[in-house]
Amino acid sequence: MLIKDPIIDSRTLRVDRRTIEESPFFHQFETVSVEDVPLNQFLSFDVYFPMTSDSSKSGVTFKKIVNRGDEFPAKLRNFFLQNEIKAVYVKKDEYEDFLNATLKRMAQIIENPYLNPAKKLEIVYRNAGYVTRMIINDPKAGKGIEHAQFIVEYYTRFVIAHQVSASLISKFFSKDYNLFAHSVQVAFLTIGFAHFIRQPVNLIPVIGIGAFLHDVGKAMLPAEIINKPAQLTEEEFKIITQHPQLGYDILKHHKSLRKDSLDIVIQHHERADGNGYPNGLKLHEINPAAQITHIVDCYDAMTMSRPYKEALSPFDTLKIMCTDMKESFNSKLLELFVIFLGY
């Protein structure tokens, strides 16, 4: 049964993000977009919303606004959107139920010939973020890999069908670095670039899933290093350089992942001049799929801001990649990447 509307009013709506995240209950929930909760179907998960509470010492309580087994009313979604509220919450132990529902809805949207490509891309981008979050939280779970492959297959189909440009691909990209957004953005740009340089259609999703999972090894590293709001020390950087091998070791047991995908995971920090890591491979030893991903990975990382470093513009990033960093890349692929981005 839908919880009555009066528990949501002007007094309870404006709970700032920091207050929500400081709640002792926040760790029990996952944040999802109100737009991705399916309409006109019975939900397999409960939907919650954080509200201020005079009686709660934490200041915020998570109130159930729609029960599992009920529909999420369009009226309620519209109420949230009209009040510029984008997020609702599901319990962590029901997050996979939410994922199954929203990915099914995403597939239907991709196949809808009447919806414009930009809106489709926005929805796929959000769903890819949900899947990345699931994988990073539990990188050894096979279900997350299956969901990632589902996303990559549909996204590849979308890129090929609409001849999607780099500017459209990056329209919804985050400019602030976080591991979830970076993983998705590298995957999406890599798929677009692979299509642009006429990689075989059956190879593009193989490259795409490798790019999607390229940083999964970071899930095994200390969070205080991954999320450090300052430049890494030399010792911390040495720890970071372990992530390609760690990612490969996690993923090599997944039989659905092909060698090209696994090569991307372990080789995406290898450099053409042999000064990369973890194995110091030279250009002729690096899988071409990893050479492609290496270019996109560097570009996306440099165009995202961190607490200690402002993001570079795409133009300045490419300028540095083509001058100071040129020895790191396959020169022919880098030239094609500049053309792909429209410079």
Please outline what is shown here.
It contains 16 helices and 4 strands. With 343 residues, it is mainly α. The chain folds into 2 domains: 1-91, no CATH class; 111-340, Orthogonal Bundle (Hypothetical protein af1432), CATH 1.10.3210.10.
List keywords for this structure.
single chain, 343 residues, mainly alpha, Hypothetical protein af1432, two-stranded antiparallel sheet, 4 strands, 50% helix, globular, disordered N terminus
Task: Explain the layout of strands and helices.
Elements (H helix, E strand, L loop, with lengths): L9 H4 L3 H5 L7 E5 L13 E6 L7 E7 L7 H9 L4 E5 L3 H16 L6 H21 L4 H21 L3 H4 L9 H18 L7 H9 L10 H4 L7 H7 L2 H9 L7 H9 L20 H15 L11 H9 L8 H10 L3
Antiparallel strand pairs: 1-4, 2-3
Structural summary, described in words:
With 343 residues, the chain is mainly alpha-helical. It folds into two domains: 1-91, no CATH class; 111-340, Orthogonal Bundle (Hypothetical protein af1432). Helix content is 50%, strand content 7%. The strands form two sheets. The chain has a two-stranded antiparallel sheet with strand order 1-4. Strand 2 and strand 3 (60-66) form a beta hairpin. Helix 4 packs antiparallel against helix 5 (117-137), helix 9 (204-212) packs parallel to helix 13 and helix 12 (243-251) runs antiparallel to helix 13 (259-267).
